Amino acid sequence: MAFQLRGQSLENQSPLLKQKLSPKAAKAKAERDLAYAKTDDRRKKKAHSQRMHRKDPSGKGKDWDHEDGRWESVKQNRGNEGEGTKKESGKKYKIK
Fold this sequence. Notes:
The chain is built from three helices and two strands. It is mainly α. The chain has a two-stranded antiparallel sheet. A hairpin with a 4-residue loop joins strand 1 and strand 2 (70-73). The protein is globular and about 40 Å long. The protein starts with 22 loop residues before the first helix and ends in an 18-residue tail after the last helix.
């Protein structure tokens, strides 16, 4: 959560907390993110990615690209090869 403890600045917290949100907004975002992470589609992709990492340890430090079916750098995969992610919404991916 993005709640700030007394005497602790945001720089000392998790690097994943990039947004400076009010406690109310942070709680709402955490709930939205958790609900999204628990969807059937996300659970299947996560399980598939974990299977691929166990099967092929050479992908350490990389993400499995469900669109292309190969290992890619985190930056390349999460940025959709430089095209952004809005175009990807609702696409069907290869999940075995």
